[in-house]
Amino acid sequence: MTGKRSSRVGDLHELLTAFDVEPAGTGRFVAKNLDGRGRDVVDGSQILAQSIVAAVKSQPEKQAKCAHMVFARAASVRSDLVLDVDTVHAGRSFGSVTVSASQGDRLCARGIVLLDRDTPDLVRHGAAMPDVAGPRPGMSPPEDAS
Question: What is the pTM of this model?
Fold first, then answer.
């Protein structure tokens, strides 16, 4: 293949700026779009990343653990996205939100983000493995029985 392949994403500053959604009221954020590089379609991974950022900004003491999104229709790069965050649960350890991405009156995507706070692991526990001596000198492993 000859020629230089160009990325649809600009520089790192452009990427970070697009992902850092701006608050626009309680539970609402505005997201700028990356340049579509000739296509008038917002990449789904951009909307998912912006939804994760909006979710974490809505519950800043937690971090995102899992996110799922359904892309109902294409979003245009010519118009900002509005992300509406609806809190399903905001507990001490776990939280979950739904995020709806729209342009005007058009719902483009909806997802759910599960969040949690780092806490000590109280479920997995067990006795520590004891220190034992190695094999006796001169002992060889059992021979293969096959």
Answer: 0.75
Specify if 143 maps to a domain: no
Here the CATH number for the domain that contains residue 96 is: 3.10.129.10
Which residue segment(s) compose the domain that 19 sits in?
12-116
Within-domain flag for 132: no
Burial pattern 32-41, b for ≥16 Cβ within 10 A else e, equals bbbeeeeeee
CA distance 39 to 35: 8
**Residues 96, 112: Cα–Cα separation, whole Å:** 7
CB atoms within 10 A of CB 67: 17
Residues 24-80 pLDDT 10s: 999 999 999 988 778 899 999 999 999 999 999 999 999 999 999 999 999 999 999
